[in-house]
Design brief:
alpha/beta, five-stranded antiparallel β-sheet, five-stranded parallel β-sheet, 25 helices, 16% strand, elongated, GAF-like_dom_sf, sequence-specific DNA binding, transcription regulation, HTH_Fis, P-loop_NTPase
Length: 693
């Protein structure tokens, strides 16, 4: 059927694709395609992949787009002898996909209905995939739809390049442009008898790719205008999406007007949709929403601001607000009984007395400092509550913060400073006792006069107590303080007077001390390395910052916080974490605590290709079975083995909900008031098999 390319090979630009049973050649648009030559190039690539990867010049009969995709497929670990795409046939997963892509499916309905009738008997099928390349709808020729099941070209099949290599859907997602992949150009051997043309679908609001429309069939259906057809269909779907979004925008504005009669024209207003994106902005004050600027339409429009909680209560909405938006009032907006957005109102500030202004400023600084400590676990909230009480109290002059390295102890010192400020320039001075040499401790803490010792500065130097006068002094790793210096520190704390080294004159200081340590100071006292009287002086009020492994789903909140923070600083979109990746991160012991998590998110932003983070992107110590920290991760004993009555009650409640909802996990999660990832994790934790009923 095929032979080598001869001198009379065909090459045309605008005519329909033509095939020759004698030569096996086909003209694809404005390039030559030869089945045998393309297969030889593919076989050569696989046989000598390193050389092919290093060689910037691809074979003349293989398009650069295809050659580059082959390289991505090979280096990504795709099996070139694969015969099908991964397929999820789980009914709950398909239901979840349908609900998650309801807007896309609705926008595509009209185009698919009109084209579906025309494709019957043509040997072609039209499919719709989401942003991950998972098929969510398929129409067309009945026989082709049936044959497509053999390679999992059906609803639930995953067709991005990471799953099945070079193909019309996955390569269109990668390039962001309409793309066709014909026959031998596919990377996997099992799909080389197919041809496909895909075009990405972009969200009209923010321009992100949210799906792909693709025309597929056996190779004889190829025509150069297949790509134009799917591109036109994608534009029709985008137009329908824009109409849907405009209708939702109008309805949300109407819902806000009817629910907020006290709104004033001078107030700033931002309306966000159900995905937390700004769809309307008006009179937003400078500095409040700087992250929303430079949007594609009106200032701020289309930018992601927050994740809306499923409950829709005002309290949950307020907690979901990022720190830079917590000065606003938030109102849930419901359409047809479902939470579909929220209104963020920034009240205009009336003139008030100077005393009231100072009080408001202190409260705002304290709120901002609290917002910097991300987490909702009970132990963390208890520590925050104690720190806030100390900050507001004028009688407590010292606080001891205990916790492992990396838990964020300095944030509590800054919280105390924020809540006790009396003037805008009240100082905050931090000193790490573990970073000071033994000989310099006295000079750094208390200062020295000119010529007090060899190496002393000629002008003298104030110590950190003097520098912190009127504000807060944070002494980190106070357990490293030399024993001979401790009596002098105790004297300063008792007398509120500091003496510079070499000076008999005392200097009064008004300083609030926040000491922090990762050591057990009581053990240090028993070992004779820390003075008991100093411990009781600095530890009159103490808090313990829990390690990250004991903070439950705070891990997810911190991932979201650092993800958004790093993405905003870099001008990128936040990463999207898979459920499996989040479960692995939740199960990890985090020996480096919050610092380790922040560094991991930063590394993922640098090293992850694309915006999706899966298990394969995580370090081995996190994904390894039974991962945990050397410092003591919880053993994660299944809750049903613990014998606790509350644990058993929760386990039984989950079984009852599963029975009541017939095993439908979406409805079970809604019934229990928890997210689907939490439900999956608890099912595994309690040893409940999803199909036990």
């Amino acid at each position: 059927m095929k032979r080598e390319i001869g001198p009379n090979h065909m090459k045309i630009n605008a005519l329909p694709a033509r095939t020759s049973l004698a030569t096996g050649q086909m003209v694809l648009g404005n390039i030559d395609y030869d089945e045998r030559a393309t297969m030889r190039a593919w076989e050569s690539f696989l046989a000598d992949e390193p050389r092919c990867a290093r060689d910037p010049v691809h074979p003349s009969h293989v398009r650069s787009l295809i050659h580059d995709s082959w390289y991505r497929s090979a280096t990504g670990g795709i099996n070139a002898q694969g015969i099908e795409a991964p397929l999820s046939s789980d009914r709950d997963e398909i239901e979840y996909l349908t609900r998650a892509n309801a807007e896309l499916l609705s926008a595509a309905r009209r185009s698919f209905a009109s084209l579906g009738q025309l494709l019957d008997g043509t040997g072609a099928m039209l499919v719709l995939a989401d942003s991950d390349g998972v098929l969510i709808d398929a129409i067309g020729d009945k026989k082709t739809l049936h044959d497509g099941m053999d390679i999992h070209l059906a609803i639930g099949g995953k067709w991005n390049e990471d799953a099945v290599g070079t193909n019309g859907i996955g390569t269109a997602l990668w390039t962001g442009e309409p793309t066709f992949v014909h026959a031998a150009e596919h990377f996997c051997a099992g799909i080389k008898s197919w041809t496909c043309a895909g075009a990405p679908i972009r969200d009209p609001l923010d321009g992100k790719i949210i799906g792909v429309v693709d025309l597929s069939g056996y190779s004889p259906i190829f025509r150069p205008h297949n790509t134009a057809l799917v591109a036109a269909t994608a534009r029709q779907i985008e137009k329908a999406l824009a109409e849907q979004q405009q209708e939702q925008r109008t309805r949300l504005l109407e819902a806000f007007i009817s629910s907020a009669p006290s709104y004033r024209r001078k107030d700033g207003l931002v309306i966000v949709d159900h995905r937390g994106r700004a769809i309307f902005c008006n009179n937003v004050p400078d500095g409040e929403t700087t992250e929303m600027m430079d949007g594609p339409m009106e200032p701020g429009r289309g930018r992601w601001l927050m994740n809306l909680p499923s409950s829709g209560s005002e309290a949950d909405l307020a907690r979901a607000l990022p720190a830079h938006l917590r000065s606003c009032h938030i109102t849930p907006l419901k359409l047809d009984g479902d939470l579909r957005g929220a209104a963020l109102v920034f009240p205009s500030v009336p003139s008030v007395s100077s005393t009231a202004v100072v009080h408001q400023e202190v409260n705002k600084h304290l709120q901002d400092a609290v917002a910097m400590i991300v987490g909702e676990s009970e132990a963390l909230q208890a520590a925050i509550d104690v720190a806030c009480r100390v900050a507001r109290s004028g009688s407590v002059t010292s606080l001891l913060v205990e916790g492992e390295t990396g838990v964020g102890k300095e944030l509590f010192a800054r919280l105390v400073h924020a809540g006790s400020r009396r003037a805008a320039n009240d100082p905050f001075i931090a000193m790490n006792c573990g970073a000071i040499t033994r000989d310099l401790f006295g000079s750094e803490l208390f200062g020295h006069v000119a010529g007090a010792f060899t190496g002393a500065s000629r002008e003298g130097k104030p110590g950190v107590f003097e520098l912190a006068n009127g504000g807060v002094l944070s002494l980190d790793e106070i357990g490293e303080l030399p024993l001979e210096i401790q009596p002098f520190l105790l004297r300063v704390l008792e007398e509120r007077v500091v003496h510079r080294i070499g000076d008999s004159r005392g200097r009064p200081v008004d300083v609030r001390l926040v000491a922090s340590t990762n050591r057990d100071l009581k053990q240090e006292i028993a070992a004779g390395r820390f003075r008991r009287d100093l411990y009781y002086r600095i530890g009159a009020v103490s808090i313990i910052v829990p390690p990250l492994r004991e903070r439950g789903e705070d891990v997810l909140l911190l991932i979201e916080h650092f993800n958004r923070q790093i993405a905003t600083a870099a001008g990128d979109d936040p990463l999207e974490f898979s459920r499996e990746a989040l479960d692995a991160l939740l199960a990890y012991g985090w020996p480096g605590n919050v610092r380790e998590l922040k560094n991991l998110v930063g590394r993922l932003h640098v090293l992850t290709r694309g915006r999706d983070v899966g298990l394969h992107n995580l370090p081995e110590e996190i994904t390894a079975s039974g991962s945990g920290s050397e410092a003591g991760s919880d053993s994660r004993v299944p809750a049903h083995e613990s014998g606790g009555t509350l644990v058993e009650a929760e386990r039984q409640a989950m079984k009852n909900a599963l029975a009541a909802e017939g095993g439908n996990l979406s409805r079970v999660a809604k019934r229990l008031g928890i997210s689907r990832p939490t439900l999956y994790r608890k099912l595994d934790q309690y040893g409940i098999r999803r199909g036990f009923i």
